[in-house]
Amino acid sequence: MPATKPKGAHTSPADATAAVDAFMASLVHPHKAVIESLRVLMLALDPLVQEGVKWNAPSFRTTEYFATTNLRAKAGIGVILHLGAKVRDLPPGGVQIADPAGLVKWLGEDRAMVEFADAQAFDEAKPAFQAILRRWLQFV
Hints:
This protein has 3 helices and 6 strands; from the N terminus they run ααββββββα.
């Protein structure tokens, strides 16, 4: 009997740091250094956070993918926050996250975007962005 992939497991070659390393090695992007800094920040959030290539971009997951870099942002670099492929039971009004720095642009009840114009903007926003991400992880 053929082995089956456990439901919800991320075991494809694209679901690994090696895939992101290879992707980044060939990436030509004006904000490649910010993307590398973003990888470091994401992987330091929680020991359960892992990375892979999803939607042709570095993406991050625990049990489900929850953040994907937006490499096509018109200016700077963006991060799309989402809750993976599974439908979630959300509180009334959807995901609620304190955002005193005004970083989050809501795209729906369970999706948001954060954009950084450049490396300086990313560095300045790191503490607020980390707080947003830690709260986001509670919904994944």
